[in-house]
Design brief:
With about 300 residues, the protein is an alpha/beta fold. The chain has a single domain, classed as Aldolase class I (TIM Barrel), CATH 3.20.20. Helix content is about 50%, strand content about 10%. It has twelve helices and eight strands. The chain has helices at about 1-10, 15-25, 40-50, 75-85, 110-120, 130-135, 140-155, 170-175, 175-190, 205-225, 240-250, 270-285; strands spanning about 30, 65-70, 95-100, 125-130, 165, 195, 230, 265. Strands 7-6-5-4-3-2-1-8 form an eight-stranded parallel beta sheet. Helix 5 (about 110-120) links the parallel strand 3 (about 95-100) and strand 4 (about 125-130).
Length: about 300
């Protein structure tokens, strides 16, 4: 995995392709705030940035989703309502972390209640965390059943389901074998996405681990003709690093995965670096932190 990731990282990207890559990165970002100090005002401010990341350039694409704690979902829904109503299927999704994020240490009843409450409040996507303690203890069937049951809790009154993104916390699973096994387990239990990390554990997302997860979803597609998404989250802060992930996606799973329905970046600071690089390439002048909004 590490040798393959290193080889992909050496790929040269032409200037014209880099311009397109920067816009693609923005379109794939889950703009995230997951702090104990989050307020309704911060969520509304972040929603404004999600809609128009660069106020100086109206041609800047919007992000894929706004990711918040469950109790902040109503404020995200309110802030994005008018924009989303006008988009005809091209809306900014509202993602909520649930299931005792980030530890995952709670009863199944609490996890399901946490999920159902966020879905009822208007969440389009649920980012759940697996019980790593159960997984590392060998209780794989228990983890499977928890994912399957949380998937059921994602059902809306109309019978549709919020998308379920299953966080493996690869930094705590540690080995490639564990991450490989957990990826297959999550997909078999009904995950719409498999996600590397909560962003609260070091290491968070790494290119080799993401590459492994991309190989799993590729193999799943070859077996079933069903596509599952991948979301690296945490630690991806620069445009240069993000472009390496795009190359890995295209080379491993295929270019069909370069779409918000199948690949996301879980990030907060990445967007600002992408905007600065984008401004430089359009104007020919280097921009500084004063040229992007403060989250």
């Amino acid at each position: 995995m590490e040798q393959r990731a290193a080889a992909l990282s050496t790929r040269s990207i032409k200037t014209s392709s880099k311009v397109l890559a920067l816009d693609k990165i923005i379109e794939l970002i889950d703009l995230t705030t997951l702090e104990g100090a989050d307020t309704p005002g911060k969520v509304r401010s972040l929603a404004t940035k999600a809609i128009q990341p660069d106020p100086s350039d109206r041609g800047t694409p919007h992000v894929a989703a706004l990711c918040v704690y469950g109790d902040m979902v109503p404020y995200a829904v309110d802030a994005l309502r008018d924009f989303n109503r006008s988009r005809n299927g091209d809306a900014i999704q509202i993602a909520a972390v649930a299931t005792a994020f980030p530890s995952g240490r709670a009863s199944l009843e609490v996890k399901c209640a946490d999920t159902a409450e966020a879905v009822a409040a208007g969440a389009d996507e649920i980012d759940m965390v697996i019980d790593r303690g159960a997984f590392l203890s060998g209780r794989h069937e228990e983890v499977f059943e928890q994912i399957r049951t949380v998937k059921e809790a994602c059902q809306r009154p109309d019978g549709s389901y919020a998308h379920l993104k299953v966080i493996l916390e690869t930094g705590e699973l540690s080995t490639y074998d564990n991450v490989h096994k957990a990826s297959w387990l999550a997909i078999l239990a009904g995950a719409d996405f498999i996600k590397t990390s909560t962003g609260k554990v070091v290491p968070a997302a790494t290119l080799p681990m993401t590459l492994l997860m991309l190989e799993v979803v590729r193999d799943w597609y070859r077996l079933t003709s069903k596509r599952v998404g991948v979301k690296p989250a945490g630690g991806i802060r620069s445009s240069k690093d993000a472009i390496r992930y795009l190359v890995a996606v295209a080379e491993t799973a295929g270019e069909a995965w370069l779409h918000p329905s199948l690949f996301r970046f879980g990030a907060s600071s990445l967007l600002d670096d992408v905007l600065l690089q984008r401004q430089r390439m359009k104007t020919g002048h280097y921009s500084g932190p004063d040229y992007v909004t403060i989250d």
